[in-house]
Design brief:
Strand content: 25-35%
Low-confidence stretches: 1-10, 346-352
Number of helices: 9
Largest sheet: 7 strands, mixed
Helix content: 10-25%
Oligomer: single chain
Number of strands: 17
Order of helices and strands: EEEHEEEHEEEHEHEHHEEHEEHEHE
Distance between the termini: 26 Å
Shape: globular
Amino acid sequence: MGSASGPADTHSWAHSFWSSGQASGEIRLQSLAAPGPGEVLIAALHSGISRGSESLVYAGHVPPAVMDTMRAPFQEGDFPGPVKYGYLSVGRIVELGPETVSGVIEASGLGVGQRVFALFPHQDRYVIPIEAASGIPDGVPSARAVLAGVVETAINAVWDAAPKWGERIAVVGCGLVGASLCALLRDFPLSRLVVIDPHPRAAALAEHLRIEVLTPAEVSGEFDTVLHCSGTEDGLALGLSLLGFEGELIEVSWFGQHSPTVPLGGDFHAKRLTIRASQVSAVALSARQRRSHRDRMKLALAELQDPFYDVLLSDHTTLAALPETMAAIASGQLLGWCHVVDYSPDPPSGRI
């Protein structure tokens, strides 16, 4: 693990996690400018590790063709690395920049002391435009709020799938996004909702989700829509095999540099099947004219008032230990859903 020690004056310094792009990472000390007009200084409380995308970035497996489109909003550095990457941060506003427009504060409802979610990497304090911070409802614990970006992805996938009354839907892959999809879909008037995953952790969710949780060997029957989230070739093939006539598979996984074999033979054409991608950077077409990215994030944060999502917070680590934690996650030694990075206790209002 890399480490750094700097000046005793911490007013203008921050610690952050950087991936080398070669299956290693380090903690870096970097300068931090004071917030300017329209900006806020945030002290991090927690951040979440998005296992799939962050493991690909950590290993340097972001395909050259999508390096620009897969940049995180506040990413520093370029793929394959070194790069500061991440997008599940929760913190508290500790300072407003000078000349911050009062109308912006009034419209956002944000001010010093407010807890916010931001699409920011793993860093203990940072400065962002106030428009990039989303207020967290009182009923959402800070650690749970790191899942806002994940739930936002799931909401977008549901909008892409556009489930109809009485449909049969299968979710293949019960990772963070798959489990969040099931939490959203369980209240829809579907005739059947199934999540399919061979890992025992999926079965443990059955009592919480109140839906069928099956292994690939146990599933039977046809489905109208499949949401594929496993990130595996086998999961994609299974999802296609489960579709009925003119069924649709919504591909939610990101495969990185891997190009999976897609079984387009057999009855793919005879059944007139469809494969369609869902990606969170664009609001789903079905909602794009009426919902903004900020609207979608607000919905995700409101959804997190459901205590079910605490089940998806697998373990906790510290920023200092993050290089070892990421190595264990990327190698498959550390399993679970979302690992939470904990930062120092809340600092007082004003300058840190």
